[in-house]
Amino acid sequence: MKFYLPSLLLGLILLFPAHLQAETIPADHPSAAMVKSYLTNVVKQDWPAASEMLLPSSLERKKAQMVEIIKNSRTLTEENAKLKMLNVKDVRDIEKMTPQAAYIADRKAVHELDERMKITPEVLKRKLDTLKIDILGLIPEEAGKIIHAVVRTRQETLEASIEELLLISVVQDKTDSKKWYIAPDMQVPITLPLKTEDAPKQGAK
């Protein structure tokens, strides 16, 4: 089966190192099914199912960000408003949550409690009934342990059609090669401290 890549995907491939430019993954790779399942769960707003598909370290970073955002509230009123959205009384309640539970609380706060994002059951059903997910290409990195999927999605509400072009990254489990995780924060900068032996010594030239 030949894989014809659109010009946008070709442009993305050019961003990768030269030894990866000619390589794409067959469309039946396990990561493709995972991407489709994950995006379906997101549209369905099945946050427990979506959380199980996310990379554990990504979930841990998400939880840490939530705690930091609450603690950095400018006023007590602002902090209480954030806590109320998450259906908790204290930031320590978030700290006690598992990363998956914190993610679920955050997604519910955004999609179920925020009136700007809340949709009716009729709209949700329409979006699911019309949802189409096309994997345009799968690009490997790190000897195939990371797969970047270029995805075109289409769906409808009661009033409009929605079309998006997405880049979804999937990471292979380090101990089980048959297990894959969605890495939602791979497209954003992640700053990690250097190991002590790698960090440059102060005053070194």
Q: Could you please describe the fold and organization of this structure?
A:
This protein has 205 residues and is of the alpha+beta class. It has one domain (7-182). It has helices at 7-13, 30-44, 47-51, 56-71, 76-85, 91-96, 99-113, 121-130; strands at 132-141, 146-156, 161-172, 180-182. The longest helix has 16 residues, at 56-71. The termini are far apart. Residues 1-10 and 18-22 have low confidence and may be disordered.
State the main characteristics.
about 200 residues; alpha+beta; four-stranded antiparallel sheet; 8 helices; about 40% helix; about 20% strand; flat; disordered N terminus
Mean pLDDT: 86
Large-scale geometry:
flat
Biggest β-sheet description? 4 strands, antiparallel
- Low-confidence regions: 1-10, 18-22
Order of helices and strands: HHHHHHHHEEEE
Radius of gyration: 20 Å
Q: What is the strand tally?
A: 4
Tell me the layout of helices and strands:
Layout: H1 7-13, H2 30-44, H3 47-51, H4 56-71, H5 76-85, H6 91-96, H7 99-113, H8 121-130, E1 132-141, E2 146-156, E3 161-172, E4 180-182
Antiparallel strand pairs: 1-2, 2-3, 3-4
Helix pairs in contact: 4-7
Quick take:
The chain is built from eight helices and four strands, in the order ααααααααββββ. With 205 residues, it is α+β, with helices and mostly antiparallel strands.
